[in-house]
Amino acid sequence: MSFGLRRRHESRELRMPPAHRRNIGMSIDEAAARLCRAQIGKRVIHLESVASTNDVAWEEAERGAPEGTVVVAEEQTAGRGRMSRKWHSPPGLGIWTSVVLRPDVSPENAASLTLCASVAVAKAVRSLCPVNVSLKWPNDVMVKGKKLCGILTEIKFGGGRIDFLVCGIGLNANQRVQDFPAELAQSATSIFMATGKMVNRGELFLAILRHFEKKYREFCRNGAASCLDEWRSMCPLFGKRVRVKGRRGAVEGVFFNIDDNGALLLRLDSGVHRSFLAGDVEPVS
Ligand code: BTN
Fold it and tell me: Angle at Cα 118 formed by Cα 87 and Cα 166, nearest 5°?
């Protein structure tokens, strides 16, 4: 979780992408039209090229955009991830989208909402593609140990409550290995790389937002518990020995649990439990 940067964004009008990146089947705009009665996606802002959809969604939220406003772009020129990392977002090959939410929950609950979003993305991918997705704390959707999707939630607080949050989802859909920069070649994957088949981005976008809406409603009605149970069942490192790398170094222990706020509880060799709200987890053999 991090605070939003209020950078100015650039956006251009949509124009037809080159043929090799053209989406066959449902377009993003057709998917958006099907969401007109939904809570998440009743308003979709579809842009060709922006610095970051999170920036645009943040600015919209500052101007009072209602909950469920969605920004989606064909390309991001300065997409960003957790811990100030860059998020590679080439034109027409992935889902780069951000959702404005205004949940009536305390700030501590926001991290578990991000975990619910990753459950929604995993279920959406599974519903459309024959691919064995799993989850990695805090918010990665993985295939065979490589990253398929990341989620970046940025929050504006006001009076001790959440004013709004922007949940940004980056999902690699149709990249080939050569579409990733060299430094991501070992760690990133796409649905195309995992299945050998192109996926229709409109259908994927629609499925993600529909699953997200379902999880979000559950979260608002009943809290994070049922979502977190699903999250645990999709996380192969749960109960295993792991290393958690944070800003202050690395710690080893057993991935003991996720608490109701989405924090990772690590059982150290001393038997003491330590809680993490941020960091990177890797298996220890
Ligand atoms: C991570 O795994 O570090 C999170 C990556 C989040 C990327 C998405 S793409 C849409 C939205 N806009 C951004 O700049 N970032 C998020």
Answer: 60
Euclidean distance between CA atoms 244 and 221, whole angstroms: 32
DSSP secondary structure of 207-250: HHHHHHHHHHHHHHHH-SHHHHHHHHHT-TTTTSEEEEEETTEE
pLDDT tens for 248-261 read 899 999 999 999 99
Cis geometry, peptide bond prior to residue 138 (ω within 30 degrees of 0): yes
Beta partners for 193? none
- Residue 207 beta carbon below 6 angstroms from any ligand 1 atom: no
Interior CA angle at 98 toward 24 and 51, to 5°? 85
Q: Whole-angstrom Cα distance, residue 147 to residue 134?
A: 10
> Which phi and psi (to 5°) does residue 228 adopt?
-70, -30
**Cβ count within 10 A of residue 3:** 10
Residue of 2, 87, 135, 153 to mutate, ligand 1, most atoms within 8 A of C-beta: 87
Q: CB neighbours (10 Å) of residue 217?
A: 12
> In testing the pocket of ligand 1, which one of 45, 54, 88 has its CB within 8 Å of the most ligand atoms?
54
The answer to whether the Cα torsion of 80, 44, 197, 211 is positive or negative is positive
Q: What is the pLDDT of residues 139-191, one digit of tens each?
A: 999 999 999 999 999 999 988 899 999 999 999 999 999 999 999 999 999 99
Strand boundaries in 86-235, DSSP class E: 94-101, 133-136, 140-143, 146-158, 161-172
